[in-house]
Design a protein that fits this description.
about 280 residues, MetI-like fold, mainly alpha
Length: about 280
């Protein structure tokens, strides 16, 4: 873990990405303290205003401050991503452990169920679930989480298959350890690296999928702030107020890019064990 962290510190892109995500999370958590007004506060005398000192991102068609709504939208997006990853990992990781550890009919049955989920386009599956559950943040969170189950299941299964016959796992079984003990105490701690990378990757997919659902009109219902909803509405006023859609879209793009950059750097740091140590790691050694 220490070596991986030092390898990350040797990559400026990863540092910038992590700093941006930490700043975004802090701003989202402290939205009530940082925002000069509420996300639903209207001023019909100042609709579709351009960038100004009072409104750095301008205002929307109801005079609401776009920057404030972007800040509160970050809270919704990060909450959806965190909840979706939690659901996907809580279901997908046990499926992968059981399938890889026992094999046989249990592996075949579980993986066929995962393949069914994997064969369905994520956006269509999410839309179908929301059509059944109704439009709400909880429904969007659950829908995005279910679409992420196959990726965790397949990654965990692959790691379990590679570790199943290792000496330390066989030793647990030889000393009378149960299958659950072998999976949880021996295999899972040694399979966490790709799962951690998958958490970062799925977070970016979850944020993008949540924005796509809102853009299609089936995500978090208005007037709740959402980046996708702002893109959807902002395209109507693209000529009158181009910043209405462009700036929330830019924040969304930067967030996805930061998560993708961090995920790639983390995967490289965890997997490329034979690479030369960066300067910061040589000094630490």
């Amino acid at each position: 873990m220490q070596v991986s962290a030092l390898r990350l510190l040797g990559r400026p892109g990863a540092i910038l990405a992590a700093a941006f995500l930490v700043l975004l999370a802090l701003v989202a958590l402290a939205a009530g303290l940082l925002a000069p007004s509420g996300p639903l506060e209207q001023d019909l005398s100042a609709t579709l205003e351009p960038l100004s000192a009072a409104h750095p991102f301008g205002t929307d068609e109801f005079g609401r401050d776009i920057l404030v709504r972007v800040i509160y939208g970050a809270r919704s997006s990060l909450l959806t991503a965190a909840g979706a990853v939690l659901i996907a990992a809580a279901v997908g990781v046990p499926i992968g452990l059981v399938a890889g550890f026992f094999g046989g009919w249990r592996d075949a049955m579980l993986m066929r169920a995962v393949d069914v989920l994997l064969s369905l386009p994520a956006i269509l599956l999410a839309m179908a679930l929301i059509a059944v559950l109704g439009r709400s943040q909880a429904a969007a969170l659950l829908a995005v989480g279910i679409t992420g189950i196959p990726s965790f299941a397949r990654v965990t299964r692959a790691q379990t298959l590679s570790l199943r016959t290792r000496d330390f796992v066989m030793a647990v079984e030889a000393f009378g350890g149960s299958a659950t003990h072998a999976m949880v105490r021996a295999i899972l701690p040694n399979a966490w690296s790709p799962i951690l990378v998958q958490i970062v990757v799925l977070s970016s997919i979850a944020i993008l999928l949540e924005a796509a659902l809102a853009f299609l009109g089936v995500g978090i219902p208005p007037p709740a702030p959402s980046w996708g909803e702002m893109l959807r509405t902002g395209k109507t006023y693209l000529y009158e107020a181009p910043t209405y859609a462009v700036l929330p879209g830019a924040v969304l793009t930067l967030t996805i890019l930061a998560l993708d950059t961090l995920g790639r750097a983390l995967a490289t740091a965890l997997d490329d064990r034979s690479a030369p140590l960066p300067e910061i790691e040589r000094r630490a050694a």
